[in-house]
Automatic annotation (TrEMBL):
Family: Belongs to the ribose-phosphate pyrophosphokinase family.
Biased composition (Basic and acidic residues): 797-809
Biased composition (Basic residues): 726-738, 773-791
Pathway: Metabolic intermediate biosynthesis; 5-phospho-alpha-D-ribose 1-diphosphate biosynthesis; 5-phospho-alpha-D-ribose 1-diphosphate from D-ribose 5-phosphate (route I): step 1/1
Catalytic activity: D-ribose 5-phosphate + ATP = 5-phospho-alpha-D-ribose 1-diphosphate + AMP + H(+)
Presence of the UniProt keyword Magnesium in the record: yes
Region annotation (Disordered) ranges: 674-695, 720-824
Top-level lineage group: Eukaryota
Gene Ontology molecular function: ATP binding; kinase activity; magnesium ion binding; ribose phosphate diphosphokinase activity
GO biological process, one term: purine nucleotide biosynthetic process
Name of this protein: ribose-phosphate diphosphokinase
Organism this protein belongs to: Phellinidium pouzarii
Annotated keywords: ATP-binding, Kinase, Magnesium, Metal-binding, Nucleotide biosynthesis, Nucleotide-binding, Transferase
InterPro entries, per the entry: HDACs, His_deacetylse_dom, His_deacetylse_dom_sf, PRib_PP_synth_CS, Pribosyltran_N, PRTase-like, PRTase_dom, Rib-P_diPkinase
Length: 824
């Protein structure tokens, strides 16, 4: 993200294509300016936008009409200086007159030094250039100079595109380029060769011969910083060919390419000529079939971004400048471990820039990271901290080191798997419940946020080990638009999701009455071994997004009521958008959970200004809307909830799936469930079959940690052989939850199993087939199983006495669901 004053990127006539590519990478527009010549050849410049106090970058390459382009650059710098630009950086991919960098003859000028002086006098504050012909040119300046490298681009291309490069050799065409060539060879871990250029004083033609290295039967890769006429390249290529090189590649930083020598370049015995677009190359590509252009726009754009943000440019080339990074090491040709994968990863990561973010917008849409859930700095750390805190709290409860754990930063209950929603990125509640289920047989989730806890409900929609109860506002269009009274789970999780939809303005008395009634009945029926309580504070009065009229005391009373069940309790935060009231609420509820009494007057802190006017813990939260929840409507909701809870009789003995060792076990089980659903719908490819999954060892949960080991609900019946006489049978909706014995299966097959049960209520997900044999389980539906006499239903035993010593009878179930005229 760019910070401070904005970037202004200008360019002259030298290389507008590169400037436009850099601007796109930075996700900015080129600053419009008019550069033209008068009839006498003088240059005129007019900048058409204000650059006052802006960070100005002027991209102008030293190519083509070098003198004209240099003059344009100097005038642009001067114009920005007089227009009060905050900082002026000259970006010169190909530095002009770089080859005239020393006095090698009498009366010879050092023109590169002159250019440096002119840039400073014109008003430059900083220079960014690329692959200087000689590194000492940086010392010609009295201002900061950053010299970018193209070698990483070259190395990347060699590794990607040149076959057999590991058996290759890097060649320098002269002694001046030996340092560059040896550095690339070291990076690639291959050999190096040096060609010596020899002239003749009597006018004989120049010739080259290989001074160092053996190129015979190898891939020869010539590297140089600049090519103009191509004469040096031609001599070097012929020397390599005469030396027995198998193939020849030439890689050059700045391809000036004189058009008069195109025929020479085309006839050279090389496979490819690689140049960068530090100077314009579009007009050359059509005429040179061997020409390949490497793009330096990403490197230049990143250097501009880092300069603007005050970041280090040298870190761009840290591995190149300081030695091989971990991604540049190599185990061996045939070894499967490739450290180079880290270099690829890093390139892809830093490849996401403001310039190409629009191309990746679909990825943001996929995970719903849009208006409500924007991507922001350090988002990963934020989600890791609050989700990790909920997981840590759950683990403490499982370990028994605490009875109550609190994470006010958690409670983000809208997030789904692979989808952010409603300000929530990671659903820490789901992760915490999954952790609790590794130890606790049944978990009750209670949500008192004004918004429906849709993410948690959806995660456990088909589970009978998690009961979700949500008290929320529901109008059909209030976010998230879910949580109807009739939404109560699916499959084996039918009736294990309870929703209490409320209207605007509910007050303390109405809320506490329905909360205590519903939660009391739910705990009695479900008998949880752990509870997770989401305490969203947007259900308070005067919330920015909420419309309830709850006081902090009433909100805290809900917490206190749940605490009194003396069940392991995880308390998390949630919504709440009037900040000073949220902090008051959670402070009070912390005192409730730890059993401390706190005064109403707030202590003095650095945030006193947030609580100005009264400085009390329990301010009056005057309701903004009238209570639209009538007593009759609340009673109707209560009756409906009680009717659903009737189906949970016997819930403490529900069949338990084997507890997975960790979260991976849950994910594997979810994949298996998806495959089974596909089979049910005939979606499995032809010819495939599934082996029946093994039965869990602990078919019923049996542990000292089960809080529901009530002696009065268990009866031991001694049986001998097969039960005879008037055999009892269940007439209700319930199904046998145990594995059917051999005799029971035979009885069902012979028609003695009784009539089929009535069809259950419609569900949104088809439950898995359950055996109707007379096993250890008994139906949860209407009525105790009765035979043709009045005896209790007893499961038929197998022929083996040692396997039928005990039969567990579950608590009796009412014969009919409650009628709607019952009072709560």
């Amino acid at each position: 993200m760019l910070r401070g004053n904005s970037i202004k990127l200008l360019t002259g006539n030298s290389h507008p294509e590169l400037a436009q590519a850099v601007a796109e990478r930075l996700n900015i527009q080129l600053t419009p300016c008019i550069v033209k010549k008068f009839s006498n050849g003088e240059t005129s410049v007019k900048i058409q936008e204000s650059v006052r106090e802006e960070d100005v970058f002027i991209l102008q390459s030293g190519c083509g009409d070098v003198n004209d382009n240099l003059m344009e650059l100097l005038i642009l710098v001067s114009a920005c200086k007089t227009a009060s630009a905050r900082r002026i950086t000259a970006v010169i991919p190909c530095f002009p007159y770089a080859r005239v960098d020393k006095k090698d003859k009498s009366r010879a000028p050092i023109t590169a030094k002159l250019v440096a002086n002119m840039l400073v006098v014109a008003g430059c504050d900083h220079v960014i250039t690329m692959d200087l012909h000689a590194s000492q040119i940086q010392g010609f300046f009295d201002i900061p100079v950053d010299n970018l490298f193209t070698e990483p681009l070259m190395i990347g291309y060699i590794k990607r595109e040149i076959d057999g490069w590991r058996d290759g050799i890097i060649v320098s065409p002269d002694a001046g380029g030996a340092k560059r060539a040896t550095a690339i060879a070291d990076k690639l871990g291959i050999e190096f060769a040096l060609i010596h250029r020899q002239g003749n004083s009597n006018g004989a033609p120049e010739r080259m011969h290989i001074l160092v290295g053996d190129v015979r039967d190898k891939v020869a890769i010539l590297v140089d910083d600049m090519i103009d006429t191509g004469n040096t390249l031609a001599l070097a290529a012929r020397a390599l060919k005469d030396g027995g090189a198998k193939t020849i590649y030439c890689i050059v930083s700045h391809g000036l390419l004189s058009e008069t020598n195109f025929s020479l370049l085309e006839s050279l015995p090389i496979d490819q000529l690689l140049v960068t677009n530090s100077v314009p190359q579009n007009q050359h590509c059509d005429r040179l079939s061997k020409l390949v252009v490497l793009d330096v726009a990403p490197t230049i754009a990143e250097s501009i971004r880092r300069t603007h943000n005050g970041e280090s440019i040298s870190l761009l080339f840290g591995e190149w400048a300081d030695g091989a990074g971990v991604g540049e090491h190599h185990y061996g040709e045939r070894h499967p471990m490739k450290p180079h994968r880290l270099s690829l990863t890093n390139a892809l990561v830093i490849g996401v820039t403001p310039g190409n973010q629009n191309d990746m917008k679909h990825l943001i849409d996929t995970f719903n990271c849009v208006e409500d859930c924007p991507v922001f700095a350090d988002m990963y750390d934020f989600t890791r901290m609050y989700a990790g805190a909920s997981l840590a709290a759950a683990r403490k409860l499982c370990a028994g080191t605490t009875d109550i754990a609190i994470n006010w930063s958690g409670g983000l209950h809208h997030a789904k798997r692979g989808e952010a929603s409603g300000f929530c990125y990671i659903n820490d509640i789901v992760l915490a419940i999954l952790e609790l289920l590794r130890y606790h047989p049944r978990v009750l989730y209670i949500d008192i946020d004004i918004h429906h806890g849709d993410g948690v409900e959806l995660a456990f929609w088909n589970s009978n080990r998690v009961m979700t109860v949500s008290f929320h506002k529901y109008t059909g269009d209030f976010f998230p638009g879910t949580g109807r009274l009739d939404d109560n789970g699916g499959g084996i999780g039918k009736h294990f999701a309870l929703n209490v939809p409320l209207l605007d303005g509910i007050d303390d008395d109405s809320y506490l009455t329905i909360f205590k009634t519903v939660i009391g009945d739910t705990v009695t029926a479900f008998r949880p071994s752990a509870i997770v309580l989401q305490c969203g504070a947007d259900s308070l009065g005067c919330d920015r997004l909420g419309a309830f009229n709850l006081s902090i005391a009433a909100h805290g009373e809900c917490v206190n009521y749940v605490r009194k069940f003396n069940v392991p309790l995880l308390v998390v935060g949630g919504g709440g958008y009037t900040v000073h009231n949220v902090s008051r609420c959670w402070t009070y509820e912390t005192s409730v959970l730890v059993g401390a009494e706190v005064p109403d007057h707030l202590p003095q802190t650095m945030y006193d200004a947030w609580f100005a006017d009264d400085y009390t813990l329990h301010p009056t939260l005057a309701g903004r809307v009238d209570n639209q929840n009538t007593p009759a409507a609340l009673q109707r909701i209560t009756r409906s909830i009680r009717q659903k809870l009737r189906y949970l009789q016997g819930a403490p003995s529900v069949q338990m799936q084997e507890i997975p060792p960790d979260l991976a076990g849950w994910l594997a089980e979810e994949e298996r469930t998806t495959e089974e659903k596909a089979e049910d719908h005939g979606a499995v490819p032809a010819g495939e079959f599934r082996v029946p999954p093994p039965k869990a060892v602990n078919e019923y949960f049996d542990s000292e940690t089960d809080v529901d080991r009530d002696e009065e609900t268990i009866s031991v019946v001694k049986t001998r052989g097969v039960a005879s006489g008037r055999r009892a049978r269940g007439r209700g909706r319930g199904r046998g939850r145990g594995r059917a014995t051999a005799t029971a299966i035979a009885a069902v097959a012979s028609g003695e199993g009784g009539n089929d049960d009535d069809a259950d209520e419609a569900t949104t997900s088809t439950p898995a087939p359950v055996s109707r044999g007379r096993g250890r389980g008994r139906g949860r539906g209407r009525g105790r199983g009765r035979g043709r006499g009045r005896g209790k239903a007893v499961a038929a035993a197998e022929d083996k006495p040692e396997e039928s010593e005990k039969t567990i009878l579950e608590p009796e179930t009412p014969t009919q669901p409650p009628s709607d005229d019952l009072e709560p």
